[in-house]
Here is the input.
Amino acid sequence: MKQLSLAFIFTVFWFTSFSQYLRTPSEIYKMAEQSSINFQSDTSSFELVEVEYPILKDIYLKDENDSLRVITYMTNKKSEKYRKKARKFEKNKKYHKAAVFLEKAYKKDTSNADLIKRLAELVWKTGEIRDAIKLYQKVIASNEYDFEAHFAISALYEIDGKYKKSLNHMMLAHLYNRNNVEILDSMKTLFSRNDLKYATANFQPKYHIESTNDTTVLIQTIDSTWQSYAYCKAIWAYENDYSENKKSISDQSIEIIEEKECLLCALITFEETKSEHKKIPAMKKLSNALLTQKIDQFLLYEHLLKSNPKLAYQLDEKSIVKLKTYLTDAKTKK
Here is the structure.
């Protein structure tokens, strides 16, 4: 009864307006059986390959068409002579003089955000914390997605005793570069100082799908929960027009619709298979996210942003706020 109740709540509260368009595990398996493609399951020799999640190295900006582009910083010849002098003074630890010349360089190249960040670093070294904060604020005002600026200003706010602002910017730095270890470790430290405990779900679906020829797809998993998830993924990947036909059921991205359907299959199977409850703790966290109506945040933070960190740049402000709330309230309070 508990399993049926949870599956019902899962459907009603997570998917609401388009839940009727999503398939359950039994429906997915039936599709696989009736497909012209031969979907084969193998649980005998599966070994999970450790996933290396991408870490963003570049700073991105949205252009006028809402498309992402990498920011490249071109050296302005008019500013270069001042930059050289600034570097010379900085090398000799004469930070005030270095800052004076870098500010002159900036006045010759005001659109260069990298120059502002370098100037902010020098001003920071002089001890002028609030002036450095103002410079980083300029960077963030021109590009909300600059995780380097959020990371730096977080440290400055902490020094200045503005702990709430420090935590806010550190979470933004983390969300805009989900897999950056230095930022994550710094956020964990800030959480501890603010009486919060960071706890990730360590969510990693355990499966492998391989097309062995034009008509055969091999699905490798270690248990029935991930088998339901993997079959759903295989249907999305290989069944003709399946993903295309799903685009019209919601205004959410097709990636999110796909993940919701496949996680629905996984969670229903998990709730129906008591022997797997202790083996997959991440699924229990998914169940808890359901009951607290934080499913979208779980899906984004624990899974999608890890696989595709640039997805954060497509989220609106409301979604980012909900993710920060998810981090501080839904899963991390002591």
About this structure: The two ends are 31 Å apart (CA to CA). Residues 1-6, 12-16, 330-334 have pLDDT under 50 and may be disordered. Residues 60-193 form a domain with the Serine Threonine Protein Phosphatase 5, Tetratricopeptide repeat fold (CATH 1.25.40.10).
